[in-house]
Amino acid sequence: MAPMKLYGSTLSWNVTRCVAVLEEAGAEYEVVPLDFSKGEHKAPDHLARNPFGQVPALQDGDLFLWESRAICKYVCRKNKPELLKDGDLKESAMVDVWLEVESNQYTPALNPILFQCLIRPMMFGAPPDEKVVEENLEKLKKVLEVYEARLTKCKYLAGDYISVADLSHVAGTVCLGATPHASVLDAYPHVKAWWTDLMARPSSQKVASLMKPPA
């Protein structure tokens, strides 16, 4: 069977969120780059894959999916369902909870920091808005306090097993490490240990290697 195709740029943390799961699940896939400067993400052929003209999009045969976390869940169900804990009602519920926490608490605090510290200078030649950065660092710290409390009770977010909920954090947190605020995790020893464990995995190392901008 042909490998799945993941459309987008590996500099996008939404695309590499999927890469982390594809790698961890041992899936056969290839990344098909899109050139945003040429508007390829808004071209008719990509709009047929993702009607919102965004990335990522995943093609598996005649199936097209978009939205990174939906793609991640599909890949898990197809290749490594234990990353969802679908066979256990309570464990799968905790995976769902922490995937929602990543989506609705962690990432909304993180994204403005990444935009200000990485995207603004690279794409627009503008310095970060430090007020925006500081406001969102405070939000992120409050989220990390909850993570710290959780990770005193278990090795990973959903329990003592790695899941898609953990892997969904990899790409964004790798990007955080490229900002002047990477040390924010150091104040939370259990979070730091969790992150060190995640980064030791080949799937996370693959993400980190792909997200290095060209020299």
UniProtKB/TrEMBL annotation:
<dbReference type="GO" id="GO:0005737">
    <property type="term" value="C:cytoplasm"/>
</dbReference>
<dbReference type="InterPro" id="IPR004046">
    <property type="entry name" value="GST_C"/>
</dbReference>
<dbReference type="InterPro" id="IPR034347">
    <property type="entry name" value="GST_Phi_C"/>
</dbReference>
<dbReference type="Pfam" id="PF02798">
    <property type="entry name" value="GST_N"/>
</dbReference>
<dbReference type="InterPro" id="IPR036249">
    <property type="entry name" value="Thioredoxin-like_sf"/>
</dbReference>
<feature type="domain" description="GST C-terminal">
    <location>
        <begin position="88"/>
        <end position="215"/>
    </location>
</feature>
<feature type="domain" description="GST N-terminal">
    <location>
        <begin position="2"/>
        <end position="83"/>
    </location>
</feature>
<comment type="function">
    <text>Conjugation of reduced glutathione to a wide number of exogenous and endogenous hydrophobic electrophiles.</text>
</comment>
<dbReference type="GO" id="GO:0004364">
    <property type="term" value="F:glutathione transferase activity"/>
</dbReference>
<dbReference type="GO" id="GO:0009635">
    <property type="term" value="P:response to herbicide"/>
</dbReference>
<comment type="similarity">
    <text>Belongs to the GST superfamily. Phi family.</text>
</comment>
<dbReference type="InterPro" id="IPR004045">
    <property type="entry name" value="Glutathione_S-Trfase_N"/>
</dbReference>
<dbReference type="GO" id="GO:0006749">
    <property type="term" value="P:glutathione metabolic process"/>
</dbReference>
<dbReference type="InterPro" id="IPR040079">
    <property type="entry name" value="Glutathione_S-Trfase"/>
</dbReference>
<dbReference type="Pfam" id="PF00043">
    <property type="entry name" value="GST_C"/>
</dbReference>
<keyword id="KW-0808">Transferase</keyword>
<dbReference type="InterPro" id="IPR036282">
    <property type="entry name" value="Glutathione-S-Trfase_C_sf"/>
</dbReference>
<dbReference type="GO" id="GO:0043295">
    <property type="term" value="F:glutathione binding"/>
</dbReference>
<protein>
    <recommendedName>
        <fullName>glutathione transferase</fullName>
        <ecNumber>2.5.1.18</ecNumber>
    </recommendedName>
</protein>
<dbReference type="InterPro" id="IPR010987">
    <property type="entry name" value="Glutathione-S-Trfase_C-like"/>
</dbReference>
